[in-house]
Design goal:
Layout lengths: L15 H40 L3 H4 L1 H24 L1 H20 L4 H29 L2 H33 L9 H14 L14 H23 L3 H23 L14 H30 L4 H29 L2 H21 L5 H28 L6 H26 L7 H21 L13
Helix pairs in contact: 1-5, 1-6, 1-7, 1-10, 3-4, 3-5, 3-8, 3-14, 4-5, 4-7, 5-14, 6-11, 6-13, 8-9, 8-14, 10-11, 10-13, 10-14, 10-15, 11-12, 11-13, 12-13, 12-15, 13-14, 14-15
């Protein structure tokens, strides 16, 4: 294991104030970088109806702006985390920030849906470099007894970005059109780069003779694209080609991929992580929780848009979900430091399910009041649960594999989102929100939340780690 070099101003005897300043600047850089993924996820949801109108496409086509982004995020984060473990988390974070700024400008100028889709994928590529390596940096600088609070603070920061996405996106769309939502990214990228270049810690790189897993890097995104296509096709109505050919091919491909990865000395997907009960529970929990959340995030704007609500009004309604996360994320982090990982996490996911319940039962006739109350509980539950899930995942492995663990955990997070958005594209018609389709979407969200709460019971209570 090769430890991270001390950041500028790292802890030294007799200089506690310098150490605190250095840690805070690292935290600031990471949180600015982590803002980008949730901000762009929620802003695009608000802008989606206008993009559909501008380019003359339906939800099945425009939905790929979300699905492709999620697929790229899911498939590339294990690779990004592994590259960070090998070549330095600092390098990956700074590279991701630089590329994200450039492609955001390109997305704002996109003249067609295919071009916009390409830039959205590149946004995901750059964000995938930032997320796992940002969390790995935090794992390295935060001691175990303060890690929950640190991750809770990151969760609150991410929730702030997600909360700002809908109202900021709504204001920008109303004022300057959907393309304006991409320019706001520069307000995060520029300061993060300036601070990060000076304060992010470098890593001492050890030489490695292990061959790069090119097969795994290529096959993983291919499988995720195929799975998304199958889910969309199947939810629209299964046919002979999908059931008879597509499903068996993907099943064989998935099994073959897992067999191959298990036999690689340094695989892209570290399947052995799932042997750890706590990691498996965290990965499954976040996957089901994100499936529940994303089905709401995408379907509610479509529902409200069909009622002729403005983009700003839709953004403000979605704001209450992320606002709940802001309130509870830091609280959840402090709780897991004091009483362990399991109880706050399972409690939060149970609150998530309770919040979705009235929305699911009301269906298309759900009132604004019910939406606001339900989404508030959804946000509170997600915020309470997220620090325990994230912390459990990175603590389940050795610190020199923290980037890989964070990447695979994030893949599980985005896999839930991919399944949710792909099923929505099939459940809802291309041009209007139908009653039966929306009811199925809301019920899917509720069932996913219940499953998330159940699997989280596999988390361990307290960490046995004693070293920072």
């Amino acid at each position: 294991m090769t430890p991270e070099a001390e950041p500028a101003g790292a802890a030294r005897p007799g200089a506690p104030s310098v150490a605190v300043k250095g840690e805070r600047l690292i935290l600031l850089t990471v949180v600015l970088g982590l803002f980008l993924a949730p901000l762009n996820s929620t802003m695009i949801a608000v802008a989606l109806p206008d993009i559909m109108l501008d380019f003359g496409v339906g939800i099945s086509s425009a939905g790929w702006l979300i699905t492709a982004y999620l697929i790229a995020m899911a498939s590339l984060q294990p690779l990004a985390g592994k590259l960070g473990d090998s070549f330095g988390h600092r390098t990956m974070v700074l590279s991701g920030l630089s590329v994200f700024g450039l492609v955001s400008i390109g997305a704002s100028l996109a003249p067609s849906l295919p071009v916009l889709l390409v830039f959205r994928v590149f946004q995901a590529v750059s964000a995938a470099l930032i997320v796992p390596n940002g969390f790995a940096l935090l794992r390295g600088i935060l001691p175990a007894h303060r890690r929950g609070a640190g991750f809770g603070l990151m969760g609150a920061g991410i929730a702030v970005a997600a909360a700002l996405g809908p109202p900021v996106g709504g204001i920008l769309v109303e004022a300057a059109g959907w393309s304006a939502i991409f320019y706001v990214n520069l307000l995060l990228v520029v300061p993060a780069l300036l601070i990060g270049l000076k304060h992010l810690p470098r890593k001492q790189i050890a030489a490695s003779n292990q061959e790069f897993d090119i097969y795994g890097a290529v096959v993983l995104p291919t499988l995720l694209v195929a799975i998304a296509w199958i889910l969309i096709s199947f939810s629209k109505g299964a046919n002979l080609w999908v059931v008879g050919i597509g499903v068996p091919l993907i099943a064989v491909g998935t099994v073959s991929f897992c067999w191959y990865e298990r036999r690689q000395p340094d695989p892209i997907v570290q399947l052995n992580f799932f042997i750890q009960k706590s990691f498996s529970a965290a990965a499954a929990g976040i996957g089901f929780a994100n499936l529940a959340m994303y089905t709401l995030l995408v379907s509610i704007p479509l529902l409200l848009s069909s009622r002729n609500d403005s983009s700003l009004h839709i953004g403000l309604i979605l704001f209450v979900m992320s606002a709940g996360m802001i309130v509870s994320s830091y609280v959840g982090g402090r709780m897991i430091d004091k009483i362990g990982r399991r109880i706050p996490t399972t409690s939060g996911l149970s609150i998530l399910a309770v919040g979705i319940m009235p929305i699911a039962f009301a269906g298309q006739d759900v009132s604004i009041t019910t939406l606001i109350v339900g989404l508030s509980l959804v946000g509170l539950g997600l915020g309470l649960a997220s620090p325990g899930l994230q912390t459990s995942a990175v603590e389940a492995v050795d610190s020199d594999q923290a980037g890989s663990a964070a990447g695979l955990y994030s893949t599980s997070r985005y896999l839930g989102s991919i399944v949710g958005t792909a099923l929505i594209a099939g459940m809802l018609s291309a041009n209007e929100v139908d009653v039966d389709g929306l009811r199925r979407v809301f019920l899917l969200s509720l069932v996913s939340a219940i499953l998330a709460a159940l699997v989280s019971l596999g988390l361990r209570g307290r960490t046995t780690e004693t070293l920072s």
